[in-house]
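Long-time lurker. I teach an intro course on protein structure, and each term I like to show students one example going from raw sequence to a predicted 3D structure in token notation. This year I'd like something fresh instead of my usual example. Would anyone be willing to generate the tokens for the chain below so I can use it in lecture? Attribution to the forum is fine with me.
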Amino acid sequence: MSMLLGAHVSIAGGVSRAFQRAADIGATAMQVFTKNANRWQASPLPAKEIKAFAAAWQASDVVSVIAHDSYLINLAAPEGENRTRSMAAFIDEMERCAQLGIGGLVMHPGAHLDAGEEIGLQRIAEALRSIFAAAPPQVTILLENTAGQGSYLGHRFEHLAAIMDQVPQGRFGVCLDTCHAFAAGYDLGSAQGYQKLMEECERLIGIERIAAFHINDSQKAQGSRVDRHAHIGKGHIALDAFAALMQDTRFVAVPKILETAPGENNCHHLEELALLRQLAEPKS
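-- Reply from a regular --
Happy to contribute to a lecture. Here you go:
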């Protein structure tokens, strides 16, 4: 099976336009928003655009498509308008994925807003129980680990495990972000550090839960708790750690997505994807 590798691409002009942008960088996997990520409301997807998306996917070399939810959504919010809007918006995101045939929706668990981790995790689980009861059954939620900035939850694998344990009826996977893991304190300074990270993931979550990777370097140091992506090889994460991930045969069929800026004429993405393909080749 060919490596599933690509980037988050723009949907400007319509979601179906994303496939040409993926083709421009030679991607076999991509991530998209299904609406403007910085607005609560969005017009329904036109039937014509849904058909165009399906046709473009059929004609493209992209094997895997995942979506990312809106940045406004916070399922750890207390009762009130923000929580109500967050839950409604998330169900809408899942419905849009179902319409487009996208099987995985990445989400940041949420921020507890000084209520404490335990209460925040309980709020997320409570929200997700309601969401799963109302949302399309064909869409899996991919919980993304976070850098732990501010009161954001999800910076420890224990948080993701707790959410899944409290929602036994949930359809879950995990999206592992390398920048976030490093900023949260996990060691990605070497191939050995990568192996320890995966051992911890296996112990607390299960390797089989990993359904996507966000492959990003980190502008900030290990344990900084600051979420600032850097281009691969231009940050603090060791290339040996990226090589260990790219060569890990357990994840051949798992999409690996860049979330860095593409650069003029996709120069950064083309350079980074070439480097990742190079790192995927074992040293002789």
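Some talking points for your students: Residues 107 and 195 are 25 Å apart (CA to CA). The chain has a mean pLDDT of 97.
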